[in-house]
Amino acid sequence: IQEMPELTEVKIEGIRKRKAEELLKKIELDKDKLKVSKKVNESLIAKTKSYITDKYRKEGFLNTKVHITTQPVDSLGTKERMLIRIDRGYKVKINHITFEGNEKFADSKLRRQMKKTKQRFFGRFWKRSKYVKKNYDEDLVNLIDFYKEKGYRDARVVSDSLIKEKDGNVSLNIAVEEGKRYYFGDIRFLGNSVYNDRVLNQILGIKKGDVYNGVLLKKRVQDNTKPDAEDITNLYQNSGYLFSQVHPVETSVVNDTINFEIRIVEGKPAYFNKITVKGNEKTNDYVIYRELRTRPGYLYSKDAVVRTVRELGQLQLFDAQNINPEFKNADPNAGTVDIEYNLTETGSSQVQLQGGYGGGSFIGTVALSFNNFSIKNIFNRKAYRPVPMGDGQSLSLSLQVSRYYRTYGFSFTEPWMGGKQPVQFSVSFSRTEQFGYSYRSYDVDKSRRFGEHQAPRHHG
């Protein structure tokens, strides 16, 4: 019995070093990453090759070639290094996109619905004509959504073919089945007691006889693309009904007319219970809690959660894209829900160094800006990391010097003066000192100076 050798080193050639490092981190084989100490066998090599090839083909490099070799490190053959050579080739372009089975809409009309997948066209500079499978799959969904918006509820893609051309590019052929055009019939609401039919019909905005639009119906019931959309689901969610459910159901189809029921389960109103924040290592809790529109005992409102996320992002203390409100312990019987706001702090300090030459003199500028300053800890040595932080205040200092003058600047802003209301208080000060100057000899006499200063200004 001979034991399989261990992997001691992996090297990738053919792509940039940074890309190679990123690729190594992403390669997953059998729920584990390609790393040292794994046993080198044919399965490992085959899976590594397959993963890399599939990855680049999904990005449009359909002609990617991967060559993997291994080499013993020791004389006993118990350890090996792996060399991966990658030849991505070029991104394959789309020569033609054609359709079959379309009678209601021309090929050119359907091609326009494919936002990210475009065929080659002389003079096309603003949109890519490269084939990327992920984008192509999304565009097939967009194509069917277009049909549904025009009333063709039964439209579907029967088949699609990728044809390799002699020049190395591809052409796409898409066969569709359009079906017939439908219209909205009767729309009834069931289970609604909080809002009457008139209010719900106003939000729905669809009338009997309108051309059937499945995409519009879905958005008017629950628009998942906009957290603050004006739809029926949000109407309930913003009124405390966290546990409400709204489902559109087709009840009958008569010739070309579809009748619907909007079935609503309202549930009982919910209230915020425990509110917590997580991830703020520098920012004090109270700076965050005072911005929250979701307080314990308040009636649940989705709009309050959305506005809280938006306003926390506007503080410029946290990464606005990574603010995640997590719902916990939602209890339909008790009518309560907990929320934990997961935050990622951003750099709240900036240092600017700038230099230049003008007017016969070098001009240098130094500016310091702190967006999460804590003035109450300014005399607390333990709070300097490297400056007192955590109270959400803004402090900026600036200095500009040249041979002929110096300019000093200072400003401070407290967004919650007194700590109870969002009343902003700010104060600023600037001073400029100019030195004596001889136009004949170009000499500067710093003992002769006069200053211009802007008196401290504040407003609340």
Question: Quick gist of this model?
Answer:
With 460 residues, this protein is α+β, with helices and mostly antiparallel strands. It is built from nine helices and 20 strands.
Could you walk me through the main structural features you see in this protein, from its secondary elements to its overall organization?
This protein is α+β, with helices and mostly antiparallel strands. It has helices spanning 17-26, 42-58, 107-112, 133-149, 197-204, 214-221, 232-237, 285-289, 302-314; strands at 6-13, 28-29, 32-33, 65-72, 79-87, 94-100, 156-164, 170-177, 183-190, 245-254, 257-265, 271-278, 324-331, 336-342, 349-358, 361-373, 393-401, 405-414, 425-437, 444-459. Strands 15-16-17-18-19-20 form a six-stranded antiparallel β-sheet, with no helix packed on it.
